[in-house]
């Protein structure tokens, strides 16, 4: 639920901006109100991943704003994005090499142990991919396949993997995963233009 709510927030912000530029007051008020309601719903889910996604999307939106405001030449824009990407990659490598990533993750409150269980779940999901690499297990079958193959049990209690790419690969095979990557590339290209 939190991921779906998260996807709606940028659209609400964008609609508010478009209607404001068009000088339409009522649609601006409605889109801002809807965005705040969706954000309130996101807050009530308590999903740390969705909030991290919102922070990441906000950082990217800020970079897009900087690029549009100060970098007009296509060469300068490419240089800006390459520099920003290299900076982000360098930061992540620094966190990994200095073991700071583990320290940061351990500071996140995790009373349910979901951070540990999700990484275990992802590892189990990777073994499920090896069982059905080309065809996948079928749409919405993770909750059936996971306990049978990974847990050796028939007790079904997990609906999904908490990882969209991994779940699509498990359920729809390599072609589904490639289609998701292609769709992501199309959206990224569209956003770049």
Automatic annotation (TrEMBL):
GO cellular-component terms in the record? membrane
Q: Which Pfam families match?
A: Wzy_C
Q: Which keywords are on file for this protein?
A: Membrane, Transmembrane, Transmembrane helix
InterPro entries for the chain: O-antigen_ligase-rel_domated (IPR007016), WaaL-like (IPR051533)
Query: What does the UniProt entry say about where the protein is found?
Result: Membrane
Entries under PANTHER family matching the protein: TEICHURONIC ACID BIOSYNTHESIS PROTEIN TUAE (PTHR37422)
Name of the protein described by the UniProt record: O-antigen ligase-related domain-containing protein
């Amino acid at each position: 639920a939190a991921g779906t709510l998260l996807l709606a927030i940028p659209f609400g912000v964008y609609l508010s901006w478009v209607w404001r530029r068009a000088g339409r007051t009522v649609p601006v008020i409605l889109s801002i109100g809807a965005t705040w309601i969706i954000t309130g719903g996101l807050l009530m889910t308590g999903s740390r991943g969705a909030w991290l996604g919102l922070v990441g999307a906000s950082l990217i939106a800020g970079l897009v704003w900087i690029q549009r405001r100060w970098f007009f030449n296509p060469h300068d824009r490419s240089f800006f994005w390459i520099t920003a990407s290299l900076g982000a990659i360098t930061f992540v490598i620094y966190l990994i090499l200095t073991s700071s990533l583990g320290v940061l993750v351990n500071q996140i409150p995790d009373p349910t142990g979901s951070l540990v269980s999700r990484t275990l779940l992802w590892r189990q999901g990777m073994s499920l991919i090896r069982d059905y690499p080309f065809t996948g297990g079928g749409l919405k079958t993770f909750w059936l396949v996971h306990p049978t193959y990974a847990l050796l049990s028939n007790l079904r209690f997990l609906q999904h993997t908490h990882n969209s790419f991994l779940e699509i690969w498990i359920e729809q095979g390599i072609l589904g995963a490639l289609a998701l990557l292609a769709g992501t590339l199309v959206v990224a290209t569209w956003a770049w233009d």
